[in-house]
Structures are given as C-alpha cells and as structure tokens.
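Translate structure to sequence.
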C-alpha cells in the first residue's frame, strides 16, 4: 500500500510514477497513509516549536503532499533517488522549499550541512544497508535534532496477509510484483533496535491504529 519513490526500481521503468503517488490520497490507500500524515504533522509541529525557522530534510520526498499541512516557518530541502520527484517538488515554487538533490540509493546522505529535523516516509524498508544509512541521518542532524520515520509493519500478520493477496493482485494488474518491493522488513522491536544501534536517543516506535505501519521518533544526542 506504500507509494514511496525508492519503490520505483521495483516497479520497473514503465511504471506510472505520478499515478502511483496519487493513490496515497485515495480510498482505500488512505487507510494506510492518513495515520502517517497525522503523526508526521505532529512531528513537524514539534520541530517548529523548538526551531521556528529551522531547516528540515525530507528524504524520499515523493510529491511532498504533506507540505500542504506543514507548519509555517520551517524550510525544506528535499532528497530523492528519482530526479522526477525532486523536479516535481521544486516545480511547486513553494518558497518554503529551499533546495532539492538527487541522492544515490543505499548511500548515507551527506549534504555538508545539518538540519533541525529529518523525516523519511516509507523509505527505510527499501534500504539494505540501513545501519549506515540511519547513522548518516543522525550525523545530518543538529545536536538534539529530531528524526521521524515510517515503514510498513511486518511484526504483525495483517500487512503481510494483505500484501500477498489483494495488493499483489493490484500490482500484477499494473505490471509489477510486490514480492521484492521491501527488501528490509521491520517489526516494532527491530526498528527500535536499528535506531538505538545508530546511536539515536529518545527512540519511540509505534504501530498506527490500523496496525499496518510503524512510525518512529528519535533524537540526535545533544
């Protein structure tokens, strides 16, 4: 049910990238994505309260739907492995979006600057080398800066059951398979261990009300 930019490689070069992202605002896809966007909104409000004019890095920006509800004052730099996503976001001409960069898959992100907040919605499940990748995100935060992640919840049976049946049928009708779309699969405990292993503080991982996804908040050491 996810629609993140890194999934493009699994979809194949003929996938309709923008149509795939548009599904996030359509029922039944909203059952998955709306709880994520609500929690992300709370995260951005917390960052804005601590850094009213702070810089936020968006990793795996997609089409940046969530900026429509983002608090005023924050400035956003977007990063994605797909140039189309970065170009589409910059084309919005939103003055809050101060830059965009195409990054290499699997590589830790280093933009030679630090950020008050970083978020990556539906990205970490596509990263095989996630320990180094998460450590790179920590290094890209200011002391005490905050990280937010979301990822499918593979620690409970509900999402795997849906993925192997209904979602796989939908995917095949669109010309791809979901079987290899998420090479790294997290449970709540595994995601918490990964963040602690990357030396984050104040790690909190929760399942969404539908139990289909996980959201994680963490903080760089002060």
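Result:
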């Amino acid at each position: 049910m996810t629609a993140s930019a890194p999934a493009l490689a699994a979809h194949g070069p003929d996938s309709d990238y923008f149509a795939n992202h548009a599904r996030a605002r359509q029922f039944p896809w909203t059952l998955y994505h709306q709880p994520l966007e609500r929690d992300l909104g709370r995260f951005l409000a917390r960052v804005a309260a601590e850094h009213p004019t702070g810089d936020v890095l968006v990793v795996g920006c997609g089409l940046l739907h969530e900026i429509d509800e983002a608090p005023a004052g924050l400035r956003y730099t977007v990063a994605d492995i797909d140039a189309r996503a970065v170009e589409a976001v910059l084309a919005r001409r939103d003055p809050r979006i101060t830059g965009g960069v195409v990054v290499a898959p699997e590589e830790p992100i280093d933009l030679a600057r630090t950020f008050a907040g970083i978020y990556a919605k539906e990205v970490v499940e596509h990263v095989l080398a996630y320990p180094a990748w998460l450590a790179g995100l920590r290094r890209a935060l200011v002391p005490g800066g905050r990280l937010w992640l979301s990822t499918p919840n593979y620690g409970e049976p509900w999402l795997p059951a849906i993925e192997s049946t209904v979602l796989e049928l939908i995917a095949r009708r669109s010309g791809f398979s979901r079987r290899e779309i998420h090479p790294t699969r997290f449970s709540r405990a595994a995601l918490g261990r990964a963040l602690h292993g990357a030396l984050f503080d104040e790690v909190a991982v929760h399942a969404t009300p539908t139990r289909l996804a996980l959201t994680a908040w963490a903080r760089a050491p002060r």
